[in-house]
């Protein structure tokens, strides 16, 4: 079988990135893999969990491992869209306005505690995440490539948080939960001290390698039977009696794109049923809406509903 990567050195580089991030974030191999899957898929990732479990540290480690600067935006209740996108400034000497780009114009953007900003500010990310550009003063300005938003979110029951609009959640390819560190990893961190947790990994890949990896992953083969299976799962979310909103076509495309990226990172030239099923919950659960229930309990409920839909959807033979 032909190797999945057109440039094997790019695959080796991405695996080196994975190993470098794993050195900085111990005991979270699955989480790191999902973030890199998102990167190779050309998507954005929502890291959701309690404060202080390493969400921002993970974002910094991923950016450092590919030799990119991380543009950090601290979302607060008084943050304005212009603070993110940038503004046009009047230059008296030139007698014209000059656009000053905001922190959104970076390869990696950390939207820290994104749900502490009101929906108006959150909406400033919609065009950027969906189309890779922003429009200011009637002019569309492209963002750098690759472009990835790594957003962190606190649980909704925490004070001062706003629920993300459905359109904003739909822009994230995956939602990932870190959880507490394993006991041994946490004990080792306590012994080493807080400074050890802030050490950034050395660059193990280039931005050009990321761009080539994204193109290679997007070209991976998806068998028509698997495409039909994925559509049946998506249709199941739209028809489930406990869900008022199922997964959109954009969400379905993002799910398949992450499955292609996972297959590419595994060195395969085709998507397997395991790729789709493994990523179903992180790719789909945050896109559906329950008819009842609110707050953190709904997160576990929708994840279980996605698993239920997977279990009852016939797989290709």
Description:
This protein has 2 domains: 1-80 and 106-217, Rossmann fold (3-Layer(aba) Sandwich), CATH 3.40.50; 220-317, Orthogonal Bundle (Helicase, Ruva Protein, domain 3), CATH 1.10.8.80. Helix content is 45%, strand content 15%. It is built from 13 helices and 11 strands. The chain has helices spanning 8-24, 29-40, 55-65, 81-85, 119-122, 126-131, 166-169, 183-192, 207-218, 224-239, 249-265, 273-284, 297-312; strands at 45-48, 70-74, 86-91, 96-101, 108-112, 133-136, 139-142, 148-153, 174-176, 243-245, 289-290. The strands form 4 sheets. Strands 2-5-8-1-9 form a 5-stranded parallel beta sheet. The protein has a two-stranded antiparallel sheet with strand order 3-4. A two-stranded antiparallel ribbon has the order 6-7. Helix 9 crosses helix 11 (249-265). The longest helix is centred in the N-terminal third of the chain and has 17 residues, at 8-24.
Features:
11 strands, alpha/beta, five-stranded parallel beta sheet, 2 domains, 15% strand, 13 helices, globular, 317 residues, two-stranded antiparallel ribbon, Rossmann fold, Helicase, Ruva Protein, domain 3, disordered N terminus
């Amino acid at each position: 079988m032909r190797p999945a990567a057109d440039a094997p050195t790019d695959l080796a580089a991405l695996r080196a990135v994975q190993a470098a991030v794993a050195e900085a974030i111990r005991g979270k191999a699955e989480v790191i893999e999902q973030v890199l899957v998102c990167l190779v898929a050309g998507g954005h990732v929502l890291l959701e969990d309690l404060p202080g479990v390493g969400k921002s540290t993970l974002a910094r480690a991923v950016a450092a491992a590919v030799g990119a600067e991380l543009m950090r935006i601290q979302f607060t209740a008084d943050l304005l869209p212009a603070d993110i996108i940038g503004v046009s400034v009047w230059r008296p000497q030139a007698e014209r306005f000059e656009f000053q780009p905001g922190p959104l114009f970076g390869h990696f953007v950390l939207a820290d505690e994104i749900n502490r900003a009101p929906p108006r500010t959150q909406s400033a990310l919609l065009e950027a995440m969906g189309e890779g550009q922003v429009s200011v003063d009637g002019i569309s300005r492209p963002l750098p490539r690759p472009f990835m938003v790594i957003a962190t979110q606190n649980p909704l029951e925490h004070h001062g948080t706003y629920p993300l609009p459905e359109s904003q959640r739909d822009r994230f390819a995956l939602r990932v939960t870190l959880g507490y560190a394993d006991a041994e990893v946490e004990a080792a961190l306590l012994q080493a001290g807080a400074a050890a947790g802030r050490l950034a990994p050395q660059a193990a890949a280039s931005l050009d390698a990321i761009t080539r990896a994204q193109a290679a992953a997007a070209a991976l083969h998806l068998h028509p039977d698997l495409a039909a299976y994925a559509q049946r799962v998506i249709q199941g979310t739209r028809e489930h009696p406990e869900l008022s909103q199922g997964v959109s076509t954009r969400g379905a495309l993002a799910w398949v794109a992450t499955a292609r990226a996972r297959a590419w990172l595994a060195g395969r030239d085709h998507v397997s049923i395991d790729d789709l099923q493994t990523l179903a919950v992180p790719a789909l659960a945050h896109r559906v809406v329950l008819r009842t229930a609110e707050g953190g309990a709904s997160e576990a409920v929708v994840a279980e509903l996605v698993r239920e839909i997977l279990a009852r959807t016939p797989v290709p033979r």
